[in-house]
Write a structure and sequence with these properties.
Strand content: 5-15%
Radius of gyration: 28 Å
Number of helices: 30
GO molecular function: (3S)-3-hydroxyacyl-CoA dehydrogenase (NAD+) activity; 3-hydroxybutyryl-CoA epimerase activity; delta(3)-delta(2)-enoyl-CoA isomerase activity; enoyl-CoA hydratase activity; NAD+ binding
Protein name: 3-hydroxyacyl-CoA dehydrogenase
Bound molecules: 3-hydroxybutanoyl-coenzyme A
Helix content: 40-55%
Subcellular location: Peroxisome
Organism: Chenopodium quinoa (Quinoa)
Number of domains: 3
Family: Belongs to the enoyl-CoA hydratase/isomerase family.
Largest sheet: 8 strands, mixed
Length: about 725
């Protein structure tokens, strides 16, 4: 049995029903059955006057049990019958009952959890709760009546905002909105809820059925205008997603035809969306994201993370200052070291600017800004390094400079101190070559801007100790990053996948595809921007430096295009020079540049390539495949080499590091939906026509031959660089 409820009846005549299903008291099918049985019993018993519903261990409920989705999708678990929870249990038993019920909410009431609470006749919460309907994040809509009750409790506009953004509200805001009736301290929660329930019995408090409240709803005409606006916004923000539109349709049905009709429409839409590819992909991402910090041989050894009290960052450039910002934002005291006063001031200035931008956006108060800034201490030497627990080096990519820094760190830092490098290209073994500290050397690869980008690649060598990895994993989570563990190699996971992405785009342009058509197709697919707009943003300097690394390490599959070097000769460097693949105005708005043709034609001449009519007229589907299948191919290599622990880590690395659309489930999840055989055959075909850049790797060939999913992993995990 997966979870249950208990019921205790007090001398006051209040039955307290407690949801128990650790860790978040999710509503499994067993919990839902048990909840119904508890309610039935409470309604039957003569000694029960009123009911309080709560969750065990300070958490009301994290919603419907997401682990059951897979079973329902593949038919192994039977879905509850149509309308069973939303209509039969929550509406016709809980809400329609002749005994009042009050939800006592602590910790969280999300999704189905909040929907259960909304079916009760009142809600009492603590101040620190999270209340929300985040179902859209999973590709579904609220399915236990939330689309009908939330608008009636908080008003249509706020309900739409909460559902479409999946953002939760805290206790006091929920109170102001009318979502909860009172906010009380945690130790008074149950007694306040009991009293409230008895007050309803005594008619001292109103007996409210949320489903039939109308005072917060606008007249139909006005409501339709609000819904029309929400539809347009959702279409603009998520053009590839259907479920936000379905959610709005379901809400509208309830307003136009009454809440019961809305409930039935919700039930049908929920069932259909639960089986959609979008839901499967987003649920995969939900678990994959939580799975990145589960590393066999590391996190299963029973090690606890050591407390990190103070951090040092070496280098106050763009990366170093971004990393320092991320750390102080999570209340870590940081020593920022630079080589001279001018650079130090510039570094601290960058941290200040990063924080000030939060103040401007209303995300930080002036007082908090002052407190956060006070956590940064500048330094020109290692005197302040004697009590740091971790150092993150973020200087330029120069081997001997890094070697010197690490040798110095070994001298000045305490012996337990973790020595991390933010290098994106240099072998960590080389960096630590001049030290005896190989077991505490680790990579902490942030993505720019480091205080905003959510991914952290934690790079381990064969000598990095599991304790150090556990510590950095914990630090990563504390600074709100999703950490992914990778092995030591050129480009790690994200840059290895990024490289074929931009290379394929260059290849297509040289062979005749219009570059704007490529950027358009890729953006339509769901990437935040196309490859050419991205290269402009990153800058040609960084692009060429990375390409050099690839030519050196993977010469057989590097496509050498002269387009960028030719543009560099004319002092084009991308957005920073306002001229790259696009022209940029003061507001960074990109427009096409007619001069581009000249560089492309010259590059073709140098490579001896002529326009291929097939490539010049490539349909969007083929553009997407010719750009992403090489990425899939590289992801397969990364997996086969043991650089990534598991396929789902690469899905997360792609989503968080490259902007791959999460609703496609990540690069390998998406690839498996298309099938290994198909991808292999296309790559084979292109490699014959356009060269080794497309050649499918041995791992892919093996999976295609067996018709096996690419995400199934190597038969035997490569020892490689782990
Ligand atoms: C019909 C209904 O309308 C449909 C629904 O209700 S769909 C579900 C809606 N609910 C949600 O989307 C909430 C999803 N959960 C979350 O956002 C977060 O997990 C949380 C805010 C509840 C807790 O966050 P946090 O404390 O950081 O812990 P987190 O690591 O995320 O979760 C702890 C564990 O609970 C699991 N979990 C969380 N919510 C779950 C859920 N609804 N079902 C099953 N497992 C869940 C996680 O997978 C994780 O498991 P693990 O330890 O084995 O990895």
């Amino acid at each position: 049995m997966k979870g249950r409820t208990t019921m205790e009846v007090g001398a006051d005549g209040v039955a307290v029903i407690t949801i128990i299903n650790p860790p978040v008291n999710s509503l499994s099918l067993d919990v839902l059955q048990s909840l119904r049985a508890s309610f039935d019993e409470a309604l039957r018993r003569n000694d029960v006057k009123a009911i309080v519903v709560t969750g065990a261990k300070g958490k009301f409920s994290g919603g419907f049990d997401i682990t059951t989705f897979g079973g329902i999708q593949n038919g192994k678990t039977e879905s509850p019958k149509r309308g069973y929870v939303a209509v039969e249990v929550l509406t016709d038993i809980v809400e329609a009952s002749r005994k009042p019920s009050v939800a006592a909410i602590d910790g969280l009431a999300l999704g189905g959890g909040l929907e259960v609470a909304m079916a009760c006749h009142a809600r009492i919460s603590t101040s620190n709760v999270q209340l929300g309907l985040p179902e859209l994040q999973l590709g579904i809509i609220p399915g236990f009546g939330g689309t009908q009750r939330l608008p009636r409790l908080v008003g249509l506009s706020k309900a739409l905002e909460m559902m479409l953004t999946s953002k939760a509200v805290r206790g006091s805001e929920a109170h102001d909105l009318g979502l909860v009736d009172a906010v009380v301290p945690a130790n008074e929660l149950l007694s306040a809820a009991r009293r409230w329930a008895l007050d309803i019995v005594e008619r001292r408090k109103p007996w409210v059925s949320s489903l039939y409240k109308t005072d917060k709803l606008e007249p139909l005409g006005e409501a339709r205008e609000i819904l029309k606006f929400a539809r347009a916004q959702a279409r603009k923000q998520a053009p590839n997603l259907r479920h936000p539109q379905v959610c709005i349709d379901v809400i509208e049905e309830g307003i136009a035809s009454g809440p019961r009709a809305g409930l039935w429409k919700e039930a049908d839409a929920f069932e259909e969306l639960l089986r959609s590819d979008t839901c499967k992909s987003l649920v995969h991402i939900f678990f994959a994201q939580r799975g990145t910090s589960k590393v066999p041989g590391v996190t299963d050894l029973g090690l606890s993370s050591r407390r990190i009290k103070k951090v040092a960052v070496i280098g106050g450039g763009l990366m170093g200052s971004g990393i320092a910002t991320a750390l102080v934002l999570s209340s870590y005291p940081v020593v920022l070291k630079e080589v001279n006063n001018k650079l130090l001031e510039a570094g601290i200035g960058r941290v200040k600017a990063n924080l000030q931008s939060r103040v401007k956006k209303g995300k930080m108060t002036e007082e908090k800004f002052g407190k956060t800034m006070s956590l940064i201490q500048g330094s020109l030497d290692y005197d302040n390094f004697r009590d740091v627990d971790i150092v993150i080096e973020a200087v330029i990519e120069n081997v001997s400079l890094k070697q010197q820094i690490f040798a110095d760190l070994e001298k000045y830092c305490p012996p337990h101190c973790i020595l991390a490098s933010n290098t994106s290209t240099i072998d960590l073994n080389l960096i630590g070559e001049k030290t005896w500290s190989q077991d505490r050397i680790v990579g902490a690869h942030f993505f720019s801007p480091a205080h905003i980008m959510p991914l952290l690649e934690i790079v381990r060598t064969q000598k990095t100790s599991p304790q150090v990895i556990v510590d950095v994993l914990d630090l990563g989570k504390k600074i709100k990053k999703t950490p992914v563990i990778v092995g030591n190699c050129t480009g790690f996971a994200v840059n290895r996948m990024f490289f074929p992405y931009t290379q394929a785009a260059m290849l297509l342009v040289e062979h005749g595809t219009d570059l704007h058509k490529i950027d358009r197709a890729i953006t339509k697919f769901g990437m935040p921007m196309g490859p050419f707009r991205l290269v402009d943003l990153v800058g040609f300097g960084v692009g060429v430096a990375t390409a050099m690394q690839y030519i050196e390490h993977f010469p057989d599959r590097t496509y050498k295009s002269m387009i960028i070097p030719l543009m560099q000769e004319d002092k084009r460097a991308g957005e920073s020079t306002r001229k790259g693949f696009y022209l940029y105005d003061d507001k960074r708005k990109a427009s096409p540049d007619p001069e581009l043709k000249k560089y492309i034609e010259k590059a073709r001449e140098i490579s001896g390539i002529s326009v291929d009519p097939k490539i010049a007229n490539l349909p969007e589907k083929d553009i997407i495949e010719m750009i992403f299948f090489p990425v899939v191919n590289e992801a397969c290599r990364v997996l086969a080499e043991g650089i990534a622990v598991k396929a789902s880590d690469l899905d997360i690395a792609g989503v968080m590091g490259m902007g791959f659309p999460p609703y496609r489930g990540g690069i390998l999840f998406w690839a498996d939906m298309l099938g290994s055989k198909y991808i292999y055959s296309r790559l084979e075909e292109w490699s014959k026509q356009y060269g080794g850049f497309f050649k499918p790797c041995a791992y892919m060939a093996e999976k295609a031959a067996k018709g096996a999913p690419l995400s199934s992993g190597p038969m035997k995990q490569a020892k490689s660089r782990m």
